[in-house]
Amino acid sequence: MSDESYPGNPMAEGLEAGDLDLDWTEARSPKPRAASGRARSVAIFLNRGLYRASRRWYLVFFGLTGLWVITPWLAPVFMKLGWSGLAGAIYAAYSFQCHQLPQRSFFLFGPEFMLSLDQIRMAWRDTLDPLILRQFVGSAELGYKLAWSDRMVSAYTSIPLAGLLWWPLRRRLRPLPLWAFALLALPMAIDAGSHFVSDLVGIDQGFRYANHWLATLTGNAFPQTFYAGNALGSFNSWMRLITGVLFGAGLAWFALPYLEAEFSSLARQIEAKFARAGVRL
């Protein structure tokens, strides 16, 4: 878009300070005319960039969240390729977001998608210390773990996926109320909280490992492998996956309408600024 002056353009006569967030009124500024012109050009350029970003915020959102949830899957790929430095950087970056316990993580390039604690202790170190266990990233024989746990995969991957479902329906759906989001987040809080309490007696040593309470409630209607452990298909695994999806989808439904409203409002404000200044947007 051109920012050149044209008949009736207030910019040619002196633009007010509030129109594009910079004081371009030369009568109030000791700066030379050339400096004032540069400041005006920079302000126009920045406002135009902000306007385009506000109109396409969803592309930035899906791009960033997509990269965020795909990157943990690259860590085992890089390990397989022998690029341990890049893989280590990913593991380190995501270690601030997740406990990275290997028995609660997915593995790629191995015989099984998930490993039990006993398998890890036999193949690596005989320890129950979570700070040591989290250091195990895998091996050529067992495969390599993702950079975050199964719960993080389900919770955070659900955010951009739910956003993709919300986007074409955004005109029809009302924003999710805060109380409804709290209800969707509550199952994950209970599941994660009970795991935390259970692990206080030792990793995978408490009541949430064997789940005898659940076996009693259901009359042992399911195989023992469903009740005990963290393997894919077990009760613990299903709870982490399901509660994660509820949280992630609820967060997207709650937050995205507000982001849409805020960026739309920002775009309208910039349009009004340029209209007042008589500058083409």
Give a structural overview.
Among the domains are: 10-55; 74-143, no CATH class. It is elongated and about 75 Å long. β2 (138-139) and β3 form a beta hairpin. It starts with 9 loop residues before the first helix and ends with a helix. It contains twelve helices and three strands; from the N terminus they run ααααβααββαααααα. α3 runs antiparallel to α7 (150-166), α7 (150-166) packs across α12 (235-277) and α8 (178-199) packs across α12 (235-277). With 281 residues, it is mainly alpha-helical.
Give the helices and strands, then pairings:
Elements: H1 10-13, H2 33-55, H3 57-81, H4 84-94, E1 107-108, H5 117-123, H6 130-133, E2 138-139, E3 143-145, H7 150-166, H8 178-199, H9 207-210, H10 212-218, H11 224-227, H12 235-277
Antiparallel strand pairs: 1-3, 2-3
Helix pairs in contact: 2-12, 3-4, 3-7, 7-12, 8-12
- Sequence stretches where pLDDT stays below 50 over 5 or more residues: 1-19, 21-29
Strand content: under 5%
Chain-averaged pLDDT:
88
End-to-end separation in angstroms reads 6 Å
Write out the strand line-up for the largest beta sheet, numbering strands in chain order.
Answer: 1-3-2
Strand segment count: 3
Q: H/E order of the elements?
A: HHHHEHHEEHHHHHH
